[in-house]
User: What shape does this take?
Amino acid sequence: MDQVCYVLQIRPGQTDAARSLIREIQTDRRTDYEQAQRLHGVVKEVWFLFSGPAGDQFVVYLEVPDFAAMVACYTSSTDPFDTWFNGRLAAVTGFDAGDPAAQAESPLPERLLSFEA
Assistant: This one.
């Protein structure tokens, strides 16, 4: 199982829009979100909002059997939810998750320690 964490800087002035994006996923688009997660093989996904000296950031944790396969599936997806999500995420962060080049150029945090009971 791949465990992945990534950080996305939220553009200045876009924190309310970022919160709105997550609220919309939790409510109006919940079914589509869950279907997309299953399609891409995501076992677990957790989103955090971190406010620090560098500004507001999304911190996202994923568990997926094969992260590289998930990214390949996701970046080639024409699913309406994925298209909607990519547009909204790009608007608040500047990161286009559906763009293979953007995915390849985005370094993931280095995992230093993990504990499971």
